[in-house]
Amino acid sequence: AEVGRLRYPPEMPGAEVKVYKKVDNVDLKLYIYKPADWKPADRRSAIVFFFGGGWQSGSPAQFRPQCEYFAGRGMVAMAADYRVGSRHNVKVADCVADAKSAIRWVRQHAAELGVDPQKIVASGGSAGGHLAACTVMVPDLEAPEEDHTISSQANAAILFNPVLILSREGLKDHVPRQDWEERLRERLGTEPKAVSPYHHIRAGLPPMIIFHGTADNTVPFETIRLFAEAMKKAGNRCELVPFEGAAHGFFNFGRGDNLAYQKTLELADEFLVEIGFLAPKGESQP
């Protein structure tokens, strides 16, 4: 399972494939999973997953199991490909632009996708969780050639050990200096603050839930705790679910008897029911 998750190009049996953006001679694709009883006239909630891999690598196949699960629950579920450093020699700012393009494309094509344009959820793991958070809260970094009257802001976010603080500005005492900071600046293609979700916390943001391992050595749990605290202080709905002793990537399909995979799905499902994006299990979808 672990190997298939990382394969690129991804193997996505059962997915419908659409190009959401052409950039630098690359066709960026969405791999779309629809419910069995889907019809074009539906107004379903949608979820778009962004894979992890440090903005350098990774595969949309990482979230195929989650896509299949949510399609089974009545959502139009998608895994997005986006440009990464190792394949396209891009910076993090370009990854963010691609993620925003994906959300905008789904909203623009909501009618043909059978999707409610105000019920688009962004999700992802690690670097992909960062991108999902950016579509919810980071302004600018939009692809210049797109129709900006159509919003690229997702309506909710489900984040799996995401990167949420990319600058230590205003946080020096709380966030230990990471040895990757200088390297990071080169990778970003912009000022760290511009792509740091924490630094764009304000009132009126969409609801989110975050799953994070307390023993994460890649993205320190403390940074996520600070983020969730500041989000709540600003009056936003932000649930942080700590997984005691769990390391980075704990939520992936194929890890540890799939216990965390199952648990994160269950809690994500409950969250979507609570915010009115999904009907409770056993009831027909809204």
UniProtKB/TrEMBL annotation:
<dbReference type="Pfam" id="PF20434">
    <property type="entry name" value="BD-FAE"/>
</dbReference>
<dbReference type="GO" id="GO:0106435">
    <property type="term" value="F:carboxylesterase activity"/>
</dbReference>
<dbReference type="GO" id="GO:0004806">
    <property type="term" value="F:triacylglycerol lipase activity"/>
</dbReference>
<keyword id="KW-0378">Hydrolase</keyword>
<dbReference type="InterPro" id="IPR049492">
    <property type="entry name" value="BD-FAE-like_dom"/>
</dbReference>
<protein>
    <submittedName>
        <fullName>Esterase</fullName>
        <ecNumber>3.1.1.1</ecNumber>
    </submittedName>
</protein>
<dbReference type="InterPro" id="IPR029058">
    <property type="entry name" value="AB_hydrolase_fold"/>
</dbReference>
<dbReference type="InterPro" id="IPR050300">
    <property type="entry name" value="GDXG_lipolytic_enzyme"/>
</dbReference>
<feature type="domain" description="BD-FAE-like">
    <location>
        <begin position="32"/>
        <end position="230"/>
    </location>
</feature>
<comment type="similarity">
    <text>Belongs to the 'GDXG' lipolytic enzyme family.</text>
</comment>
